[in-house]
Amino acid sequence: MYGQNPLLQLKDISVNFGFTEALKSITLDIYSKEIVAIVGDNGVGKSTLIKTISGLIQPTKGRMIFEDKEVNLHSIREANDLGIATVFQGQEFCDNLDVASNLFLGKEMRNKSCHTLNKDAMACEARKALQELTCAIRIHTPIRLLSSGQRQTVALARMLLSNPKLILLDEPTASLSLTQTAETLSYMKRLRSQGRTIILVCHNLPDVFAVATRIVVLRQGKIVGNHDVSETNYVQIIREMTGIEDEEDDTISSSIIDNINENQKLSHKRNALISRSAK
Fold first, then answer.
1. Checking CA distances to 216, which of 113, 181, 240, 243 falls within 20 to 30 Å?
2. Is residue 157 pLDDT above 60, yes or no?
3. Is the pTM of this model over 0.70?
4. What 3 state SS string does the chain have?
């Protein structure tokens, strides 16, 4: 994987809000068919990084290279046109419309002759997008009747309509049940198997270890860790997130280690559900 050219390169990216440095000299390569998890405590710059890659925020300094070309993104639309799609936390829908209508909201397909809505074409494309996720949601179901997990699936399907090369997901499993989370993680693995690349922001380490191929740790706006999942563990990631280095430190040797053990138990349950969802 790392023998190829990166799909995305961030070179010395910094983002300032007034006198506050949200991101400090971020340099990171993202390769095709990876699921890269961005982890860290609240306020360390994870969402700012996603918003910068998506074009929602412009960096104060630094360069972004996508498919070997330097890009300067000024909007989400520009990013979409390049093949970078984002599903933000708390994706909004029109509850009075059905699934198919929400999938094409703002980018409706029209008949060439009379410019009326081509509902048949939209229904066909909506079915294809949901089938790509092996999802059984009916396209004419009103959005207001869907669960949080089903809404997350519709958000993923809407994103797939643009056929993105790079997918950015901001806390996709937040507020989901265990089963709904397993389904969402299963969708991510399926998208990777189809050749797509994912950058994932997530607080939940069991979710991260269940689905990611690489983990990048942010602390105080800087990258302090960058590991293949197979070469790291909960303890190392949490130490990097918290800045605790001493293995004998009571803070991490008691309550945090207990929490790690509970997370590992939860991870086994979640992996079983993911395997079941993938069948």
1. 181
2. yes
3. yes
4. CCCCCCCEEEEEEEEEECCEEEEEEEEEEECCCCEEEEECCCCCCHHHHHHHHHCCCCCCEEEEEECCEEECCCCHHHHHHHCEEEECCCCCCCCCCEHHHHHCCCCCCECCCCCCECHHHHHHHHHHHHHHCCCCCCCCCEHHHCCHHHHHHHHHHHHHCCCCCEEEEECCCCCCCHHHHHHHHHHHHHHHHCCCEEEEECCCHHHHHHHCCEEEEEECCEEEEEEEHHHCCHHHHHHHHHCCCCCCCHHHHHHHHHHHHHHHHHHHHHHHHHHHHHC
